[in-house]
């Protein structure tokens, strides 16, 4: 029900991102990292010092070659050799210390950023979620966050560390021999330009790969959740072909990434040996001319060798930078979405005693960017303790109307009030503490029966849970489960029958004697006998709650004090079930067409 325009931030795989925007997407994580700036900066400084020792070792080597070795003084080798050993140990220790210092900040960054994303997803409206592929959201919350953690822990620090190392090495090399330093720079400048060009091209392909990975995840998730349908209709092969098709598309994109990486690595690995060969030739000539010592040449070649890993690592680091920028873009696309349903700036406080009178006053509603107005000028009142049934053909807007009370959607025009207070002026937490909802399609979680019913409310006792299960006529089958209330019911409750899932959802709605109860045909999966038992047990709850009940069966409509007939987006008739059967041909048609 959401237009493509609303989905562009999530689904578009070709969304262009300007360079300025891409840079800022990573810098925007600084507030997450700021609390850990001391260990992060310290780890970078230690790493730079550690790599610096690797550049000092060639200078000691030069001293050994030009000093004790040339003088044939074997005893003079021991002291500088001991210095080399100490510097090597310092380098190794710096690696361990850097990893130790970075482990906690990077993992905490991932937890906090992922938690912020989860809270944002929870704050967005149902309309936003209805238009998204779940696999895309999962890839953002899991895969992309892991990419960003690796960037914080490794790629970002070493982009700086390696840059400092290469610059320092080039300066030392130039100090040893200006002509060797020039040779190094002549080959380094093209390498830097190639890396910069690679990053801009690689990032486009990386974005496409991450989006396609989300599509594959969506297909897998849908296939798991819909396994019964696929098997029942014999369509497993069809879904498998869809998966293979999407996987092949992803493979093609990943191969494009490999091709880019192959070109980059060929350049990064191929250029340094050319530089070494040129330096060796020029150095040998300089030694014969007496303008360079043998030790200086050995030290220069050792420095270049120590710079090979930082240079070669740039290929990996730049690819990680591209992946991380893409992940950051995708993260902030979600975080930057406006909260279309949020607490008001100046919320009203609920009175100490809430009666629970619900009023719809001239309410109109249409889904975001939809062409058709689903509800038009709907007005009615539900008095405290009254049960009102809502009846209409499929697609008439019954579920949308019930979603307006807890503000799962907001009205397009008009108002919904509780005890005269507009629901849009209440805190969402206050409003939703008053309203309990049971949907036709029950949503259960991979948790115990108790956890599914209490939904994290610590004040709810087992006695309350069993009382709610009794109302839903679910106490017997729950008691027969292997571990009773502690039995885990599996993801989406698929280990239970449809009727059992509905009764657990109903028990979750009625627990705690809610002030306002919204029941969206919660008994549709029950057989007639069980439905009657639930009706009898539910009567006491309905007598104390203000209830809006979506009904498709005459037996359910008969529970209500009053019935509203929703037709063409308006209230076409209202009265008791019996009076409408007697006076409204349209009502009789709806009851006949939806019953059985």
From TrEMBL:
SMART domains: AAA (SM00382)
Membrane spanning residue stretches: 38-57, 77-97, 151-172, 178-198, 260-285, 297-318
Subcellular localization: Cell membrane
Example of a GO cellular component annotation carried by this entry: plasma membrane
Topological type in the membrane: Multi-pass membrane protein
Superkingdom as given in the UniProt entry: Bacteria
Source organism: Rhodococcoides trifolii
Stored PANTHER family: ATP-BINDING CASSETTE SUB-FAMILY B MEMBER 10, MITOCHONDRIAL, ATP-DEPENDENT PERMEASE MDL1, MITOCHONDRIAL
Protein name: ABC transporter ATP-binding protein
Similarity comment text for this entry: Belongs to the ABC transporter superfamily. Lipid exporter (TC 3.A.1.106) family.
Limits of the ABC transmembrane type-1 domain: 41-323
ABC transporter domain residues: 358-593
Pfam families cross-referenced by the UniProt entry: ABC_membrane, ABC_tran
GO terms, molecular function: ABC-type oligopeptide transporter activity; ATP binding; ATP hydrolysis activity
InterPro entries assigned to the protein according to its UniProt record, in alphabetical order: AAA+_ATPase, ABC1_TM_dom, ABC1_TM_sf, ABC_transporter-like_ATP-bd, ABC_transporter-like_CS, P-loop_NTPase, Type_1_exporter
Keywords per UniProt: ATP-binding, Cell membrane, Membrane, Nucleotide-binding, Transmembrane, Transmembrane helix, Transport
